[in-house]
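Onboarding guide, step 5: your first structure request.
Type a short instruction followed by the sequence, for example:

Predict the 3D structure of this protein.
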Amino acid sequence: MAQATLSGTVVCKEGTPPVSLRNISDSFTIAEFSVRDTEYFYYKGDDKPGQFYRVQVGGKQAEIIANSLERGDFVSVTGQLIQNVYNDKTYLNVRDARVNQPYKEKKEVF
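The system replies with structure tokens like these:
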């Protein structure tokens, strides 16, 4: 399995929780959240749409992530990068991820 590492800002709609939890069984939970990376893209001006990734974390770390991540937190994520095409749009997901939250510095939120 190929691994990818990315860093970015946790994003969600205003007023919604940044992490959603899904119970697969009585003993296994999956946490899902979105990360926005703007460092790769070059745009003139301040309008940087960035690249969005949907991240899935399983197991015990899922519960920890759900209680600690907030909108605007800067995180580093390592996991399997999956590309999906839906309605002619390409989506990038990171599955079986490990999350490192290097510091609690708020970044720009989209």
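Each response can be followed by summary notes, for example: Residues 3-42+53-100 form a domain with the OB fold (Dihydrolipoamide Acetyltransferase, E2P) fold (CATH 2.40.50.140).
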